[in-house]
Amino acid sequence: MALTDPRACACGSGLNHAGCCGLNLAALDRSPPDAPLLALMARAQQAREQGDAALAEQLCVEVLEQSPGQPEALWLLSRLCDGRASPAAVEALVGRIVALNPNDARATRELALRVMRRGAPAEAEAHARNAVRMAPLDPQSHAVMGMVLTEALKPHTAEAHYRQALTLSGKRDPILLANYALCLRMQGRMAESRALYEEAQAGAPLEFQILLDWAKLEEADHRFARAGALIDAAERLTPNHPGLRLPRAVLLGRQGDTQSALAMLDGSAQLSGEEWMERGRLLDRAGRFDEAFAAFDTGRAVWRAEGKPHYAAQTAARLAGRLRGFFTASRLATLPRATTRYDRPQPVFILGFPRSGTTLVEQTLTATTAIAAGGELPLVWEVTNAMSRLLDSPLRYPDALAELWLGDRSEGLEVLRDHYLYRAHQFGVARTSALFTDKMPLNEMHLGLIGLIFPDAPLIHVLRHPLDVVLSVYSNNLTHGFNCAATLETAARHYALIADLVEHYRSQMTPRYLTVRYEDMVRDQEREVRRMLDFVGVKFEPAHLRFHENRRHAPTASYAQVTEPLYDRSLERWRRYRAHLAPVIPILRPAIERLGYSID
Question: How big is the CA angle at 140 (ends 139 and 143), to the nearest 5 degrees?
Answer without folding.
Answer: 85
